[in-house]
Amino acid sequence: MNNLRIGVIGIPGKWSTEVLADRLxxxxxxxxxxxxxxxxLDLNTKSxxxxxxxxxELDGLIVKKxxxxxxxxxxxxxxxxxxxxxAGVSVFSSAESILRLVDRLSCTVTLRNADIPMPSTFVTxxxxxxxxxxxxxxxxxxxxxxxxxxxxxxxxxASQSNAELTKELEIFKVNNPMMYLQQKLDLSGRDLGMVFIxxxxxxxxxxxxxxxxWNTTIHDGGRYEDYQPSDELIELGRKAxxxxxxxxxxxxxxxxxxxxxxxxVSAFGGFKGALEGSKIDAAEAYCNYVLTKLDKx
Length: 297
Description:
Blueprint (H helix, E strand, L loop, with lengths): L5 E4 L5 H14 L4 E2 L5 E3 L4 E4 L2 E2 L5 E4 L8 H15 L3 E3 L2 H8 L1 H10 L7 E4 L2 H11 L1 E5 L10 E4 L4 H12 L5 E5 L6 E8 L2 E9 L14 E4 L4 H11 L6 E9 L2 E7 L6 H7 L3 H15 L1
Parallel strand pairs: 1-2, 1-6, 6-7
Antiparallel strand pairs: 3-4, 4-5, 8-11, 9-10, 9-11, 12-13, 12-15, 13-14, 15-16
Helix pairs in contact: 1-9, 2-3, 5-6
């Protein structure tokens, strides 16, 4: 056991946050779970306080979750972590890496600039142009730029009238001025989560739909299964996550009739899929990675 003081930023009481704190406590004897809603930054003293602790005096911070839900305000929360980094605290993953992934559009642009295969995607603020894309795709998924687990996503069909599509798009635009549309593909009820730690491959699990819902998320009733990918598929996942420089991430991949595609790279990634699907304790593996990094610092 070493004497490193490493805090976990997450959602107190949530399994992934608590299991990460448990693993760290077992290895270091120190436990600190931080809700970012409790953090206060004083730029005069350059202190970042939470629960009576100055986070700028810790050895490290692991960011499991910056917020319960994705929203533009999460960007402000992550910005605070840059103060801790400037004070010499190692943050896993870095604030800069996370900031590039909170917004779905930022992630998509980076992936496509790296020539990663993705579903056909159309982004616009113009309703007429959006309707044109829906007609071209036949069936499209309208996605908020800030969301996880398929929350807030809507299926729009080319069979709908212009009036119907206009109404749905106008409602969506009230909270989402930029409309992000992806062609809906047949995923045969399954997609993959490929886990990487420090850019190195750990495991892959499948999310399998248990109903007639269009998505496979556990939030909507899916379940986890193990999956053994080919070397080529692992290389695709590695290439997808590489531009972001994350310490821990999950790459969402689907297998289609025309080949594998990447939906997104997660800013945080999850532990439960690896544990329930692949029987691998990703939280333990992540802790070992962080401790090794800090020991070499």
